[in-house]
Write a structure and sequence with these properties.
Elements lengths: L3 H14 L7 E5 L11 H8 L4 E7 L2 E6 L4 E5 L5 E6 L8 E7 L2 E6 L6 E5 L20 H8 L6 H6 L9 H10 L13 H20 L40 E5 L2 E5 L34
Antiparallel strand pairs: 1-6, 2-3, 3-4, 4-8, 5-7, 6-7, 9-10
The structure holds a DNA duplex.
DNA sequence: ACCACATCCTGTTAGC
DNA sequence: TGCTAACAGGATGTGG
């Protein structure tokens, strides 16, 4: 499931190769993927044909493929979306919903679950996505985060998944960030102290930057724009590790379902009541191997 | 304004 | 072994 690091990894590649490249033909554009768009599939096809890419932006988990006409194609990969540049001769993946012919190569979007989205952005306009602060930007500070969370009655887990507060986090990185900052996922969002908000803000940055260094987490579907999986899976501390020993304290990782979404956490490192910290990460004798050291440095 | 829940969708897996 | 049902979740829409 592509979250900020995965989408940014794709963006960086596309930003290198797309500028100046013309779209010769729109081979395929599935109308079912066009959602909340001022233009429909046929109109988008018309506008895209012959257009030339200028640059590529990311907003939260959205990609903006800008055109020299100052228009843009907005893409979201949903859960299972793959956006890949490959040979025009390469066999089409099943569930390919967008195929742009760029000379000898194609830009292709395949998305089995069709949770993704294709939309048009008119010239001079910015898409109204209602997204919150970018967690890797300078604006994302402890006080900003605490302000965003203040007064909120929902669980911190739900609040961090809310894209209108912080843009780009998904289930994996929320769980990882809460683990690193030792905050229980069901804690009331508005109840975080400034100290906790600071730890959380740092954890979010760290988790995202670490994943970015590893070109994203390939848990099920994600591949980068060249079709390669990311390497970050092995560095996850809690997501997908239910029942496995916590890398910090060996307590089995727990999983609970909150609002239909699973939350992975360590019951000992992330106590509900927010217990007093009694040990530091430095005190942990790490040893190499699958169940060895913490994947992240100390908070 | 905020929140909880249903909806979309299909490949994979758990369970009978 | 083979089938069915549950499960996974990002964004959006609805009702409270």
């Amino acid at each position: 499931m592509p979250e900020l690091p995965e989408v940014e990894t794709i963006r960086r590649y596309l930003a290198e190769m797309l500028p100046g490249v013309p779209i010769e033909r729109v081979e395929h554009l599935d109308p079912r993927m066009v959602k909340h768009s001022p233009l429909n599939a046929g109109q988008i096809t018309e506008r895209l044909t012959g257009a030339v890419f200028s640059h590529v932006d990311r907003i939260g988990k959205f990609l903006l493929l800008r055109l020299q006409s100052d228009e843009a194609l907005l893409l979201h990969l949903g859960m299972s979306g793959r956006l890949v540049v490959e040979s025009h001769q390469a066999p089409l993946q099943p569930h390919t919903h967008l195929q742009l012919a760029l000379g000898d190569r194609d830009l292709r979007l395949a998305d089995p679950r069709r949770f993704g989205r294709i939309a048009w952005v008119a010239a001079g306009e910015e898409p109204a996505l209602g997204l919150g602060v970018e967690p890797l930007s300078r604006r994302f500070t402890a006080t900003v985060l605490q302000d965003l969370l203040s007064g909120r009655k929902s669980a911190i887990k739900s609040a961090l998944l809310n894209q209108s507060l912080v843009a780009g986090l998904g289930n994996i990185y929320v769980d990882e960030s809460l683990f690193l900052s030792r905050i229980h996922p069901s804690r009331l969002a508005g109840s975080l102290s400034l100290v906790e908000a600071r730890a959380l803000a740092r954890a979010i940055r760290r988790v995202l930057e670490l994943s970015l260094e590893h070109r994203g987490t390939s848990f099920s579907d994600y591949v980068d724009a060249l079709g390669h999986p990311g390497d970050n899976l092995q560095y996850l501390n809690v997501y997908g590790r239910e029942g496995k020993p916590c890398r910090r304290c060996r307590t089995p990782i727990a999983r609970i379902v909150m609002g239909g979404r699973s939350s992975h956490f360590c019951p000992r490192c992330q106590p509900v009541a927010g217990g007093v910290q009694t040990r530091t990460d430095e005190s942990i004798s790490g040893k190499a191997g699958d169940e060895g050291d913490l994947s992240h440095a100390e908070i």
